[in-house]
Design a protein that fits this description.
It is a single chain. This protein is an alpha/beta fold. Helix content is 38%, strand content 14%. It is built from 11 helices and 12 strands. The strands form 2 sheets. The protein has a 7-stranded mixed beta sheet with strand order 1-7-6-5-4-2-3, with helices on both faces. Helix 7 links the parallel strand 4 and strand 5. Helix 2 packs across helix 3 and helix 9 packs parallel to helix 11.
Amino acid sequence: MLNSKILEIEKSLEDEFKKIENVCFANSEKVLSAFHKFNLNTGDFNGTTGYGYGDAGRDKIDEIFADVFHAEKALVRTQFISGTHALTVSLFGLLRPGDKFVSITGKPYDTLEPVIGITPNQSSLKSFGIDFDYIDLKNGDFDYNKISGVINDDIKLIHIQRSIGYASRDTLSIEKVSKVIDFIKNINSEIIIFVDNCYCEFCNSLEPTDVGADVVVGSLIKNLGAGVVNNGAYVVGKAKYVELIAERLTVPGQGDHVGPSLGQNKSFLLGLYMAPSVVASALKVKLLTKKLCEVNNVSYINGATNDIVLGICFGDANKLSRYAKCIQKMSAIDSAFVPEETDMPGYDSKIIMASGSFVDGSSIELSCDAPLREPYILYQQGSLTYDYGKLAVCKAFEEIFDGGNYE
């Protein structure tokens, strides 16, 4: 694997790797500054059980996250079981019966469809009288004409999903997000701009809250957990909105004053501390994989470094499945397991997933997954270190392409 061709590929990536390292440095500086600003100390690692009253470490984590995102308030909780759960709680916290919200990035990720009511569900937002519509992207960017046509006093919230999910598009850059937020706010400043930031944190030196987003949500078993956080998610943004979301997660009148940290304070802080470096490793693996695709005449989508996800367009179910099985075989955990296509809750197609992770389902660790449907795109993400990711993807391409075009 580590032959002259791989070294040549890495040499060609030096300038792009340097840009990633510069972003990593800027985000590391941001995190360390927040730790110092709030005088983080070992006593903050102590957690609570039961109701979680007076959890000083938990409250300090909220302050640190808010500072890193340049936001008014944050809610960082182990009680969020996933990014989808945090998005769900947030939408239910912000919207009321009779409200309407619009996604301007097309249909949201598959697992949100029953939440919204696109897929019928008795517990959906739709069942509570909350209306939804969506506008597809146009040529990889926002459709400004259609957006201007729907923005009015009836729209309570605009939903933006930055990363691609299982769509065949590129992740939205922070520049595009900034431009559309300015556009919307100039028409109606009262609309809540709500951003699903999963897979995108620390890929740039700016986050959506830096460019006008009102609420930003993400999972902690993705970028900001750095592979050391066992579960949870975060919400950051304007205080009045984060408070509503906290009261939907816990109890009206108590909000973020309750919710035990259950021994997770240290892992939340360590994850955030390591996140800039881990995200940089994942981005470097993404670029290496992209180059391996080019060498082997495999098309791909989402090749920029706006998130950690690369879509590998195999166009063939067998090659897709073989690649996923090889990534599993090169994982540190469960390397003897063989991924199989199976039904999963929230998805309308069978899914194959390779994820030999220290944290179950952690997609900041090298993993890949795909719906078994045309055009057979495999979505690869993560890697805690560059070297482990390099070993895995080089081996996968060798096996799929009979040694690869590396000699």
